[in-house]
């Protein structure tokens, strides 16, 4: 039996993907080897690598003037690589602070140059995406950094800013969850372990023109140009993670692409938000209505005691990973692409039943 996996990350992988990987594990396409045993310079592997690249381009509508890179070091290394490559002397990197991961990105940028907080919702314990800022203030800045979905707090940008300077988004926890206009961004990055597959690979989508503007004096492996020039094969890439990414992308395509995935995600999140909204205040959403996330649904119960009881009973019914992050408390249901609709409907039903028995 498969658990109802609501973990925040690493997160659920679609079952058909796991089954296909299992089937192919020992003998990949009659090579007599596992995909993880193939040379990264072999034609067989290169096909997997290029397929992942082209599928991502197709699914997100990434134009030809963007590079798609497969890197390592997680989204966390991007927090450092971005300023290392793009924050030049005399320039300022601007940040909109919407959660703990924005904080971490800002902290790393400070090692490399001037930074400025354009807006922040920290004082409200990150219950919403900040709206009180003027983009006129970022003129001449190196770039504007945002976190599109705040995994810990359960908030998500609904409309991205029309930034006059390069816009960079950490989309680690919501890439491929809904349709986006890639051309609004100079760079998008995401660790794979939520919507893209297992951990180990980090996807970077970067506009070529922006890449060309990067600094030259950056160590080879940390320089985006190195990876762009070498089709992300400068050194040994995380081949198995990229293979799994390619299978997840095939699966997204089979689901009807991102457009249909978005529809399903809206339905999934709808079940759980409805259970919160119809609970007569028993469950309280952490996020304000205008900032609610499709991917991480954060809520509290009336007391610590009831929260513990809820989590215990949920676990007994195979609902896994519902404890909230310690900085928010309460509960969090992560409803990434691979979490089936039935799991969300079942959780909503359980929430209502629990409320009726305990209020
Ligand atoms: N950014 C966001 C929005 C995240 O949710 C996470 C991890 O949960 C990270 C960055 C860090 O990612 P990684 O562990 O790949 O460094």
Task: Give a description of the structure.
The structure is a single chain. This protein has 359 residues and is of the alpha/beta class. It has helices spanning 15-24, 43-60, 74-86, 100-109, 208-212, 224-229, 239-254, 257-277, 304-316, 341-358; strands spanning 4-5, 66-71, 92-97, 114-120, 143-147, 149-150, 155-156, 167-170, 187-191, 202-207, 284-285, 296-300, 319-320, 331-334. The chain has two domains: 15-254, Aspartate Aminotransferase, domain 2; 257-358, Aspartate Aminotransferase, domain 1, CATH 3.90.1150.10. The protein is built from ten helices and 14 strands. It has a seven-stranded mixed sheet with strand order 2-10-9-8-5-3-4, with helices on both faces. Strands 11-12-14 form a three-stranded antiparallel sheet, covered by helices on one side. A two-stranded parallel sheet has the order 1-13. Helix 8 (257-277) packs parallel to helix 10. It is globular, with a radius of gyration of 21 Å. The two termini are 32 Å apart. The structure holds pyridoxal-5'-phosphate (PLP). Pyridoxal-5'-phosphate (PLP) is lined by residues 9, 74-76, 101, 147, 151, 170, 172-173, 191.
């Amino acid at each position: 039996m498969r658990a109802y996996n609501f973990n925040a990350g690493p997160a659920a992988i679609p079952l058909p993907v796991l089954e296909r990987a299992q089937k192919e594990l020992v003998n990949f396409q009659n090579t007599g080897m596992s995909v993880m045993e193939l040379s990264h310079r072999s034609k067989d592997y290169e096909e997997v690598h290029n397929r992942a690249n082209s599928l991502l381009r197709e699914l997100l509508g990434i134009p030809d003037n963007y590079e798609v890179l497969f890197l390592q070091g997680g989204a966390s290394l991007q927090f450092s690589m971005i300023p290392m490559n793009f924050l030049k002397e005399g320039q300022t990197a601007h940040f909109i602070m919407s959660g703990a991961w924005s904080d971490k990105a800002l902290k790393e940028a400070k090692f490399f140059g001037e930074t400025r907080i354009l807006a922040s919702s920290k004082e409200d314990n990150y219950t919403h995406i900040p709206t009180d800022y003027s983009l006129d203030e970022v003129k001449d800045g190196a770039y504007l950094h945002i976190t599109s979905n705040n995994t810990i707090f359960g908030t998500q940008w609904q409309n991205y800013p029309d930034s006059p300077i390069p816009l960079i988004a950490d989309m680690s926890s919501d890439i491929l969850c809904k349709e986006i206009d890639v051309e609004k961004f100079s760079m998008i990055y995401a660790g794979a372990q939520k919507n893209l597959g297992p951990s180990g690979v980090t996807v970077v989508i970067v506009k070529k023109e922006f890449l060309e503007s990067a600094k030259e004096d950056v160590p080879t492996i940390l320089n985006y140009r190195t990876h762009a020039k070498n089709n992300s094969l400068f050194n040994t890439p995380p081949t198995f993670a990229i293979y799994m990414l390619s299978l997840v992308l095939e699966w997204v395509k089979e689901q009807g692409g991102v457009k249909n995935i978005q529809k399903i995600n809206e339905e999934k999140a709808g079940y759980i938000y409805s259970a919160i909204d119809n609970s007569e205040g028993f469950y309280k959403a952490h996020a304000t209505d205008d900032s609610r996330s499709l991917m991480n649904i954060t809520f509290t119960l009336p007391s610590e005691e009831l929260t513990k009881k809820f989590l215990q009973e949920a676990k007994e019914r195979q609902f896994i990973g519902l404890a909230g992050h310690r900085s928010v408390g309460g509960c969090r249901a992560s409803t990434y692409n691979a979490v089936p609709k039935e799991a969300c409907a079942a959780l909503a039903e359980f929430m209502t039943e629990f409320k009726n028995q305990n209020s």
